[in-house]
Design brief:
Layout: E1 5-13, E2 16-21, E3 24-30, H1 32-42, E4 47-51, H2 59-72, E5 77-80, H3 86-95, E6 99-102, H4 104-108, H5 112-120, E7 125-133, E8 139-143, E9 148-149, H6 154-164, E10 168-173, H7 185-194, E11 199-202, H8 208-217, E12 222-225, H9 227-230, E13 231-232, E14 237-238, H10 245-248
Parallel strand pairs: 1-4, 1-12, 4-5, 5-6, 6-7, 7-10, 10-11, 11-12
Antiparallel strand pairs: 1-2, 2-3, 7-8, 8-9, 13-14
Helix pairs in contact: 3-5, 6-7
């Protein structure tokens, strides 16, 4: 029997906690350290943070945020966003991050994953695979916060990540991110069938039923979400939540 993880994903921008829809129109929703403290109390399995700031001069703030968050967190932290080189990976591990999430750098630099996995083991390296359908209805990987089409299928991309030394895939449907209408089960099935490493599925969670569907219908190892843990009610009031274990029941075991 294997345990399935349920992971909140928090987006940071210039030191603030933000949330958007389909990788666009991000709005301020609070202070990241306060969010971490709340999730401490909720006893979450793991917390993933992605800094979507784009300016290079904000690199110092990026590492300051990571250090502050790690010092507050009681749970394992996965951290990424804009990582471009091995020195940045080393610095995050030095701060105390358990897993480093690498996105665009994997597309531009074939060496960053194998070199990173040698530092702390492949289990500590996560490749983010952001996917949306192109004009022909085919799944395609996008980098640079969903703005650059690669022409590569998510299956091919995930397979390459595994061969390169990644220990985990963070698979996100851009088309469904922040919408809350359910995960893309077909996309998840394709990627989980193609690789042996754990896959975290994200994009579209709006209810516990959506999570149940993904867990039972695919080979996913974890489900991640942002809006589901951040907003409450039809008016989307900001309220950080996490299901109690009695609400989950045996959902996260197979």
């Amino acid at each position: 029997m294997r345990y399935k993880r349920l992971i909140p994903v928090l987006l940071l921008q210039k030191g603030n906690l933000v949330k958007g829809i389909k990788f666009k129109n991000h709005q301020y929703v609070g202070d990241p350290l306060n969010a971490v403290r709340i999730f401490n109390e909720k006893e979450v399995d793991e917390l993933a943070l992605l800094d979507i700031s784009t300016k290079k001069e904000e690199e110092k703030l990026f590492f300051k945020n990571a250090e502050d968050i790690v010092s507050e967190a009681f749970m394992p932290i996965s951290y990424g966003g804009g990582i471009q080189n091995l020195e940045q990976v080393k610095q995050l591990f030095k701060i105390g991050v358990e897993k480093v999430i690498i996105n665009s750098a994997f597309y531009f630099d074939d060496k960053i994953i194998p070199c990173s996995s040698q530092i702390a083991g492949s289990q500590s390296i996560v490749v983010a695979v952001d996917v949306k359908k192109n004009l022909f209805g085919k799944y395609e990987v996008y980098t640079k916060n969903g703005t650059k089409a690669t022409g590569i299928s998510p299956v091919e991309y995930a397979e390459k990540a595994q061969v390169s030394g990644a220990g985990e895939i963070l698979l996100t449907s851009i088309d469904r991110e922040g919408v809350g209408e359910g995960l893309d089960l077909d996309l998840i099935k394709q990627v989980t069938a193609a690789v042996d490493i754990p896959v975290i599925a994200q994009g579209g969670v709006g209810s516990l039923d959506h999570i149940r569907q993904a867990v039972k219908a695919t080979g996913v190892s974890a489900v991640a979400a942002g809006s589901f843990f951040t907003f409450y009610g039809k008016h989307k009031a900001v309220l950080l939540t996490y299901p109690a274990y009695h609400e989950l029941g045996n959902l996260f075991f197979d």
